[in-house]
Write a structure and sequence with these properties.
Blueprint: H1 2-13, H2 20-27, H3 31-38, H4 41-63, H5 70-86, H6 95-103, H7 108-134, H8 144-165, H9 171-179
Helix pairs in contact: 1-2, 1-4, 4-5, 4-7, 6-7, 7-8, 8-9
C-alpha cells in the first residue's frame, strides 16, 4: 500500500528531512499521481499520521482486552509497541512521538492533531485502569487518568530513547518498574 510506504519514510526520516523527491523515489509514483492521490507533502504527512494512529488503535484494542488481568493487558500493549523496536524491524521510535517532538512548534494544526492522537491512547489506557479498579485488580489510590498519563509518559520516554540513541536498553526492567504502580 502506497500510504504505508509513505508513512514508513516519514517515520524513518521525519517530516523536515523527507523531500517530495524522496517520496516520489520511495513510492515510484509520478509527481502528478502523488499529488492527485494524496495532495501536498503536508497532507501526505497528516494522512500518514492517521494511518499510524489506525495501527496503534488496533494494538490498543488487541492488548487491552478485558478478558486478561490488567497487568497482562498493559504488558502486552508495551510488548506490541516495543518488541519491533528491540528487533529493529521498524523505524526507530514511535511515529506519533517522533512527530510530536519535531512538529509541536512548527505547525499548530499538526500539533493539535498529535495532541488528540496522544489523548486517544491515554483514554484507552484510562478506561483499562478504571476497569481494573472496578474489578478489584487495582486500588483506588490513583486516578485512572493519572495512571494512564504515567504509563504513556513511560512509553514516550522509551520511544524517544530509541529514536535518539538507536537502542532501547533494558526496557523490560523499565516496564516492570512502571507496572509496579499497578500493585499499589
Amino acid at each position: 500500500h502506497v500510504l504505508d510506504q509513505i508513512m514508513m519514510l516519514f517515520w524513518q526520516r521525519g517530516y523536515q528531512a523527507t523531500s517530495i523527491h524522496d517520496l516520489l523515489d520511495h513510492t515510484g509514483l509520478s509527481r502528478a499521481s502523488l499529488y492527485h492521490a494524496f495532495g501536498d507533502k503536508r497532507e501526505l504527512y497528516v494522512r500518514s499520521l492517521h494511518r499510524y494512529q489506525e495501527q496503534m488503535a488496533l494494538d490498543l484494542d488487541d492488548a487491552l482486552m478485558p478478558s486478561r488481568p490488567l497487568r497482562e493487558q498493559v504488558r502486552a500493549l508495551f510488548r506490541q509497541r516495543l518488541a519491533p523496536q528491540a528487533r529493529m524491524s521498524s523505524p526507530p521510535g514511535c511515529l506519533l512521538i517522533n512527530a510530536s517532538t519535531e512538529m509541536s512548534t512548527r505547525d499548530t494544526g499538526i500539533s493539535q492533531l498529535l495532541t488528540e492522537m496522544r489523548q486517544g491512547w491515554q483514554v484507552a489506557l484510562s478506561r483499562a485502569m478504571a476497569r481494573g479498579q472496578a474489578q478489584g485488580e487495582l486500588s483506588y489510590q490513583y486516578d485512572p487518568e493519572a495512571l494512564a498519563r504515567a504509563l504513556f509518559l513511560t512509553y514516550s520516554g522509551l520511544m524517544v530513547q530509541i529514536r535518539q540513541q538507536g537502542e532501547l536498553g533494558d526496557w523490560e526492567e523499565v516496564l516492570d518498574i512502571a507496572l509496579s504502580v499497578l500493585d499499589a
